[in-house]
Amino acid sequence: MINDISVYVHIPFCERKCGYCSFYSAPSDEQTRAAYAKALCRSIGSYRTMHHECPSVYFGGGTPTVMESESLIMVLDKIREVFDLDDDAELTIEANPGTVDLKKLTELREAGFNRISFGVQSLVDEELSALGRIHTAADALAAVNDAVKAGFDNISCDMMIGIPKQTSGSMLYTADRLSELPVSHISAYMLSVEKGTPFYETGVEPDDELQANMYLDLCERLEKKGFDHYEISNFARNGKVSRHNTRYWKGESYLGFGPSAHSYYDDERRSCDDSTDQYIKQSVQHDTVNELFPDKLEEYIMLGLRLSEGIFFNGLRIYGASEETIESIRKKALELSAYGICTVTDTGIALTEAGFLASNAVIGEFIDLC
Length: 370
Ligand code: SF4
Hints:
This protein is an alpha/beta fold.
């Protein structure tokens, strides 16, 4: 039985593909975007009988702001019609700084979006060109300022670690400049090069050691600037964590609309095929069930250790771990704590920033004990 559910909407359009991007997105024309908005509304409308409370909505992509405001607003209004949005629901839209102006941002804010997440990546123009981004540093600064003028007071910016030719100094320059802006949230991702991307084809290879050092430098700098490092890649000021993403990390239910979108509810993980053409043609979204009854204990460990609050021994109990398993995990954590990888208290285990860098291996070790 689901108590409440978050809604994700995937907008699979971008003006141009960035060299490193493996997300499902492509250029589009106006007619396709309008048809896609209608297809989204049909699929969302098919959930009319669910009557679930909805604490958060997230329009991601791709680049949602490539889509015309009227289409975005039509989809948001359909969500409002079908789900019982909480009065204080967090309504986020991702935006590429090269695709917005004050008019568009004002329309989105007036329509009800109350959080905006800009894909800034860097405030150094050479680094932006190396990534193949369509915007400059000046565009990004202007977009944030326009968002403030439009009435957004919950602004997030993504930045990237390990861009070709980036140095720790230039990465910290971006972090410092973002910190000077009225930005309440920063997501910092390490550049990873996936098969099939132009970066992969041309042999771009991030330097792991340099990236790790930059990550630690960034954590230190953002904490000095008043950001709380609440998740491996996420930092928030004034308590403005991403409520939508925190629900993913806490294993809460969500419903994803659009090609390549994932859903998790009623003990099922589902995904929608990644074909925009097919999505537009079909009457309502067709999902494939990828996993039934996912292992909640494993998920609790895997997702919980991404958060700086970590996992709790009581949480392990709730998800079915025996006292012996909990004791083995506690012992392993004590061993790792001697290397500065995690901290262990009477109530639970949390990774340190050095531990976040080795999180996959550490999480694997804990899961092997279950
Ligand atoms: S704007 Fe974002 S989603 Fe679009 S191609 Fe670039 S990285 Fe990918």
